[in-house]
């Protein structure tokens, strides 16, 4: 298109407006030619107004969306090339911004994941280093299921088994109230200890070990004392050796448990006779009995009235068994990690044991038909030492430093009455979340083997031996 002032009359108003807009001449110069009518002038001005609007919209187009709209609206604009160039720059910048934002978001996401992973690892490490401070439920409630799952994975534990804890039940029964109810020719084995000293848990391991590695059965006596109780303790652990432990608030009982025990034999050839059965009765004394001895020595009233009748029945049973002709063995259970922990009455394990010592000294309970006295330090896995011998030495130091009165009294009476005194350390096994345990047979076997030595089977004639 040529812009020529000499042919205004034959040039369309739109073309003239374009020439004016592009600077070829001005509207005044067009009018001065005398060849541009008033209607054509108005049409030119209208076109020029449209061009000015286009200019303004171009100037204001500073985003990809507004530039795209401008290009669609003015496909023949003189600003088209510039608009496309500006649009490309903006789009490239916006693309870079999106990429940078995605990188920042990804980096932030990774940082959050890493921070949470480190936080979870720290929580898992803390729980593992304080494994029995909280139950699995408490850990789940405080830290979440994901953290508990990670802890179980580290320990190679079945999560479902861990979280489905059911507190075991105990089928307690009556105890002898008359001397003629006590089975004859049994060795009565007393288990002494303060509340929560580990007696009942230790008994459960002993009975499970007997069930799994020895032959144990009920004696044929009229009164089946403790049979259901013994079975309920053994069943705390399953066939794979896993078990749920009692809570700290579980009630403990005084129970009298007669049974027959012998080793298992590996061969059934006729010349390999079946071992004879040792006749023994475990007499588990409630921790409340030791608390009652404290009351007796100090004139206090620590035993709750609701438990007083049961404690008095236990004391009567103690008297019956001590006067009976059966042989006797005494076990004292001392909890290694409860020595400095006071109960609600602000009394420690040491306070109760020292009171019991005064009772033993006054009543001379070990004088009549006692074969041995054993002191068992529980929670042995917490004892210092690199091996069992070192842990046993640490247990002796612990007893001598904290329970000298008990040790001295027992030593004196053992010397006076020719009784054996020995020490055991005892661990029930690996404990997780204070509720779950993988049984350890080793310490239980050591005690059982000692009992099989001390509790001799009754004598029988040669015909009975041959039939066995």
Q: If you had to describe this structure to a student in words, what would you say it looks like?
A:
The structure is a single chain. This protein has 468 residues and is of the alpha/beta class. It folds into 3 domains: 5-87, no CATH class; 107-163, no CATH class; 179-467, P-loop containing nucleotide triphosphate hydrolases (Rossmann fold). It has helices spanning 13-21, 27-32, 38-60, 64-73, 80-129, 136-143, 145-155, 159-163, 199-213, 227-234, 287-298, 305-323, 349-363, 388-402, 404-417, 441-454, 462-467, and strands spanning 187-192, 214-217, 242-244, 255-263, 278-284, 328-335, 370-378, 420-426, 429-432, 436-439. A 7-stranded mixed beta sheet has the order 2-4-5-1-6-7-8, sandwiched between helices. A 3-stranded antiparallel beta sheet has the order 3-10-9, with no helix packed on it.
What distinguishing features does this structure have?
alpha/beta; 468 residues; Rossmann fold; 7-stranded mixed β-sheet
Structural topology:
Elements: H1 13-21, H2 27-32, H3 38-60, H4 64-73, H5 80-129, H6 136-143, H7 145-155, H8 159-163, E1 187-192, H9 199-213, E2 214-217, H10 227-234, E3 242-244, E4 255-263, E5 278-284, H11 287-298, H12 305-323, E6 328-335, H13 349-363, E7 370-378, H14 388-402, H15 404-417, E8 420-426, E9 429-432, E10 436-439, H16 441-454, H17 462-467
Parallel strand pairs: 1-5, 1-6, 6-7, 7-8
Antiparallel strand pairs: 2-4, 3-10, 4-5, 9-10
Helix pairs in contact: 1-3, 4-5, 5-7, 6-7, 9-10, 9-16, 11-13
């Amino acid at each position: 298109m040529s812009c020529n002032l000499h042919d205004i009359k034959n040039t369309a108003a739109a073309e003239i407006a374009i020439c004016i807009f592009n600077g070829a001449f001005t509207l005044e110069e067009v009018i001065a030619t005398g060849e541009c009518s008033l209607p054509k002038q108005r049409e030119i001005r209208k076109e020029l107004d449209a061009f000015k609007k286009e200019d303004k919209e171009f100037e204001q187009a500073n985003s990809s969306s507004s530039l795209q709209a401008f290009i669609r609206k003015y496909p023949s604009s003189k600003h088209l090339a510039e608009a496309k160039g500006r649009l490309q720059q903006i789009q490239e910048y916006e693309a870079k911004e999106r990429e940078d934002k995605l990188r920042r978001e990804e980096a932030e996401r990774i940082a959050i994941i890493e921070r949470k992973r480190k936080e979870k690892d720290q929580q898992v490490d803390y729980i593992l280093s304080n494994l029995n401070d909280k139950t699995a439920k408490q850990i789940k409630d405080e830290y979440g299921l994901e953290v508990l799952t990670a802890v179980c994975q580290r320990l190679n534990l079945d999560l479902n088994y861990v979280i489905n804890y059911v507190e075991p039940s105990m089928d307690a029964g009556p105890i002898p109230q008359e001397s003629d109810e006590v089975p004859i020719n049994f060795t009565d084995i007393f288990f002494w200890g303060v509340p929560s000293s580990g007696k009942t848990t230790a008994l459960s391991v002993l009975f499970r070990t007997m069930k799994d590695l020895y032959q144990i059965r009920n004696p044929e006596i009229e009164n089946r004392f403790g049979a259901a109780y013994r079975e309920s303790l053994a069943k705390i652990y399953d066939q794979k050796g896993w078990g749920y432990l009692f809570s700290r608030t579980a009630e403990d009982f005084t129970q009298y448990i007669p049974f027959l025990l012998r080793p298992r034999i590996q061969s059934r050839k006729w010349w390999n006779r079946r071992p004879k059965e040792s006749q023994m009765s475990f007499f588990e004394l409630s921790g409340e009995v030791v608390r009652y001895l404290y009351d007796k020595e100090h004139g206090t009233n620590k035993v709750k009235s609701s438990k007083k009748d049961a404690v008095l029945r236990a004391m009567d049973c103690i008297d019956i068994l001590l006067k009976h002709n059966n042989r006797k063995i005494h076990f004292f259970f001392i909890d290694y990690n409860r020595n400095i922990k006071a109960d609600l009455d602000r009394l420690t394990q040491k306070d109760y044991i020292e009171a019991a010592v005064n009772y033993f000294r006054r009543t001379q309970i070990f004088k009549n038909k006692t074969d041995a006295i054993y002191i068992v330090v529980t929670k042995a896995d917490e004892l210092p030492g690199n091996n069992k011998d070192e842990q046993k030495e640490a247990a002796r130091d612990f007893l001598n430093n904290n329970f000298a009165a008990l040790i001295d009294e027992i030593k004196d009476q053992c010397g006076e009455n020719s009784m054996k005194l020995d020490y055991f350390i005892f661990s029930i096994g690996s404990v997780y979340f204070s509720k779950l345990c993988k049984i350890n047979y080793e310490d239980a076997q050591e005690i059982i083997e000692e009992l099989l030595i001390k509790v001799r089977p009754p004598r029988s004639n040669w015909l009975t031996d041959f039939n066995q």
